[in-house]
Inverse folding.
């Protein structure tokens, strides 16, 4: 079997997953940091602002690395799984 | 690193760069200029006609008179401690504008007391051109409604962030060997690439800050909204934190006079230099009195400095969330994001550094586009050796690059200069400065498409130099013709000097570009049949001319 080689061919699906699931993931991580890192936040208090700011580096990080998934499908699956873990921790625990 | 990953990220870098590059050029060029928005507003505004600034000791009388005669001020007003073109009088208040969008700048009224005790009230007369440059910066050159322009800016910022990461990944394998390499020579693509890499890698922290903060500036409303909807509910609901509360006061107790507040603040924070005191009316959110000011030892939240909340009765410090040197760790972290974007720390040296870094950023995006064009040429040469015609895409991007960048440079200069050159421009039209900017911008763009990249580049560089030179020309005319224009004493002279230096640099660039064209190979984007025919250089002497306009 020919070894796998990366290419920019599949960019649309990967970037789509990065935008949608990356944004949701950054929200969940911001919420987790607010809850476990800062013990809850007051509305528009600096801690709340910090949780909002996290979205930017997290989203750029996901969008920059989403090309490293081997296919669009894998991007959606992996980022989807990460979202499930993060949102379960945030909402159900 | 695997070569296929490098190749993939090269594609990512190319496309994110091409799509965002020209927006970013405008954002960085205009942003560099906004580092000196204050001096620029001073330069472009006529001397204020509100009389002498009322002494701080008489400000209680001023406030009393204004509140009695102007009900609009009862909702809140400001006492200005450090006057400028934007705040030319001691007291300022906002005119209500019920239809205005959140982000529209409100209109302000300004008031002083005349010597005989009568009120002098009026608008500041500050030229809107300083704000125009700021708007061009924040909305990446698109003076569309805020709600449309900001999401576009946000997408550009995201592309920019990805372009930075992918650019570094592409550079990584050769980073050590190429870092200090700057190969001037025959291989122009190599030279531009070295220059692009050098500029990019050494200003990377600056660029990362700009990309990440701009994403938040564009999308904070959306992120807050989505968080509120999805995150801060149930177990994660917002909590109430105890804040400082104003001291209990009997109704009869008087507020401290502004001068006394300043003195109390100085006792508590001697390094803090207050600039503006904002009194919020009853029923407004936030502390009843907040003071904007500078403490050069710390980073500050906004270009207008840091903010402290005070008890208006005792002058005690109540709110320190945005107060330089008194913030919590989280608060100071957030302030650092703003500070690093605005360059609101360290005073003048940092301002000048940001000015140069901003211009450097603009050059980075310009060279990025040039690299794309040169690469296209090489690829074309390889695949079709006999073909000298530029591809359509190259022509399009070449003309766009030259037209947008030089149109922006010339447009901003022309618009600023018109504040002094065309007296009463603002009374003719609310959008006079925008009109001049876009007139120059779109004329340049059209010119670039009509004349072809090579000739347009030279001509537009000269045009931009002329536009820059209009600034000192306007000042000289004001000096020479009595009763026309104005010149303020002091640092606004620096505006004229910088404009002169800019004009000189643009002339130099025009001359160099003209020379470059004479030597350009026929398949280059810089090749121009006419120029080559007039002034035969080594390349044009050996190739037949078939009316090819690069």
């Amino acid at each position: 079997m020919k070894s796998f080689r990366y290419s920019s061919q599949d960019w649309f699906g990967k970037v789509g997953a990065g935008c949608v699931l990356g944004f949701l993931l950054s929200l969940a991580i911001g919420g987790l940091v607010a809850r476990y890192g800062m013990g809850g936040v007051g509305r528009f208090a600096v801690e709340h602002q910090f949780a909002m700011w996290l979205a930017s580096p997290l989203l750029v990080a996901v969008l920059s690395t989403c090309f490293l998934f081997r296919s669009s499908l894998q991007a959606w699956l992996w980022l989807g799984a990460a979202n499930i873990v993060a949102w379960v921790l945030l909402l159900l625990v | 690193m695997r070569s296929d990953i490098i190749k993939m990220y090269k594609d990512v870098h190319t496309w994110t760069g091409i799509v965002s590059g020209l927006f970013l050029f405008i954002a960085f060029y205009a942003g560099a200029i906004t580092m000196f928005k204050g001096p620029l507003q001073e330069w472009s505004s006529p001397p204020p006609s509100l009389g002498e600034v009322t002494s701080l000791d008489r400000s209680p009388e001023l406030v009393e008179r204004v509140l009695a005669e102007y009900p609009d001020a009862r909702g809140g007003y400001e006492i200005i401690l450090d006057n400028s073109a934007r705040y030319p009088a001691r007291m300022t208040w906002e005119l209500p504008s019920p239809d205005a969008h959140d982000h529209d700048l409100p209109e302000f009224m300004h008031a002083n007391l005349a010597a005989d005790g009568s009120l002098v009230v009026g608008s500041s007369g500050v030229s809107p051109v300083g704000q125009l440059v700021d708007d061009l910066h924040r909305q990446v050159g698109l003076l569309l409604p805020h709600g449309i322009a900001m999401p576009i800016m946000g997408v550009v910022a995201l592309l920019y962030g990805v372009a930075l990461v992918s650019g570094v990944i592409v550079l990584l394998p050769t980073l050590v060997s190429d870092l200090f390499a700057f190969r001037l020579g025959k291989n122009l693509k190599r030279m531009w690439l070295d220059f692009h890499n050098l500029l990019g890698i050494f200003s990377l922290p600056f660029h990362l800050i700009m990309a990440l903060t701009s994403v938040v500036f564009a999308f904070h409303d959306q992120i807050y909204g989505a968080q509120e909807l999805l995150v801060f509910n149930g177990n994660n609901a917002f909590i109430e934190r105890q804040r400082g509360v104003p001291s209990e006061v009997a109704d009869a107790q008087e507020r401290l006079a502004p001068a006394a507040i300043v003195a109390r603040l100085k006792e508590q924070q001697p390094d803090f230099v207050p600039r503006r005191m904002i009194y919020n009316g009853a029923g407004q959110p936030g502390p009843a009195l907040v003071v904007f000011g500078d403490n050069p030892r710390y980073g500050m939240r906004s270009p207008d400095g840091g903010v402290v909340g005070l008890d208006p009765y005792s002058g005690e410090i109540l709110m320190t969330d945005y107060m330089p040197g008194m913030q919590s760790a989280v608060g100071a972290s957030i302030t650092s994001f703003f500070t690093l974007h605005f360059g609101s720390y360290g005073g003048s040296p940092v301002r000048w550094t940001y000015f140069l870094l901003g211009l450097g950023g603009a050059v980075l995006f310009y060279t990025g586009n040039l690299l794309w064009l040169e690469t296209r040429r090489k690829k074309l040469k390889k695949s079709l050796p006999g073909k000298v015609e530029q591809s359509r895409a190259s022509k399009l991007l070449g003309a766009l690059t030259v037209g947008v960048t030089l149109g922006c440079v010339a447009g901003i200069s022309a618009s600023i200069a018109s504040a002094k050159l065309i007296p009463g421009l603002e009374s003719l039209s609310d959008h006079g400065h925008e009109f001049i900017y876009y007139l120059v911008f779109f004329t340049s763009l059209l010119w670039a498409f009509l004349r072809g990249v090579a000739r347009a580049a030279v001509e537009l560089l000269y045009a931009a130099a002329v536009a820059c030179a209009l600034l000192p020309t306007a000042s000289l005319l004001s000096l020479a013709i009595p009763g026309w224009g104005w010149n303020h004493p002091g640092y606004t002279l620096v505006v004229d000097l910088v404009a002169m230096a800019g004009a000189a640099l643009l002339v130099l660039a025009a001359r160099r570009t003209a020379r470059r064209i004479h030597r350009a190979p026929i398949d280059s984007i810089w090749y121009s049949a006419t120029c080559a025919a007039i002034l035969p250089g080594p390349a044009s002497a050996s190739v037949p001319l078939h009316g090819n306009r690069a």
